[in-house]
């Protein structure tokens, strides 16, 4: 994997292989970096996740599709095979600017999940679960 260290502490890994990534390969990469997955999430087309942060390093290992993380300084788009590690306390939004689903492992070093919301919680796991319940 090609590694890029960005000014705000974010680390980006780009997929260098001539084969498409699989769930198995991406989970292995996540583990090799010292992380544990707490979710394999599929985001629908035009997905939007409001501004939030975590009190730990968050990792996202993309299996398919692409999504853009919006930070105060700049956006970062990841696609299948890429990995982004976001330092603790960095607010970010995640937006899929296209009509394809995005699938990725989400994780932390401990495998635990916690979040601080700065927006309305749109697109959070809790928000998505309540939408399913309300749709019945």
From TrEMBL:
Species in which this protein is naturally found: Fluviispira sanaruensis
Sequence ranges assigned to domain Cupin type-2 in this UniProt record: 50-103
Classification via Gene3D superfamilies: Jelly Rolls
UniProt protein name: Cupin type-2 domain-containing protein
Coiled-coil ranges (or none): none
InterPro entries assigned: Cupin_2, RmlC-like_jellyroll, RmlC_Cupin_sf
Pfam families to which the protein is assigned, alphabetical: Cupin_2
């Amino acid at each position: 994997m090609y590694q890029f260290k960005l000014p705000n502490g974010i680390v980006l890994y780009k997929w260098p292989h001539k084969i498409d990534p699989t769930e198995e390969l991406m989970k292995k990469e996540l583990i090799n970096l010292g992380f544990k997955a707490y979710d394999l999430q599929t985001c629908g087309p035009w997905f939007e996740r409001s501004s939030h942060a975590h009190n730990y390093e968050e990792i996202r290992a993309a299996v398919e599709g692409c999504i853009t993380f919006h930070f105060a300084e700049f956006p970062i788009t990841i696609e299948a095979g890429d990995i982004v590690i976001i330092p603790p306390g960095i607010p970010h939004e995640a937006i899929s600017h296209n009509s394809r689903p995005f699938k990725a492992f989400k994780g932390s070093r401990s495998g635990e999940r916690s979040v601080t919301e700065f927006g309305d919680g749109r697109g959070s796991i809790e928000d998505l679960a309540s939408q399913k319940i309300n749709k019945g």
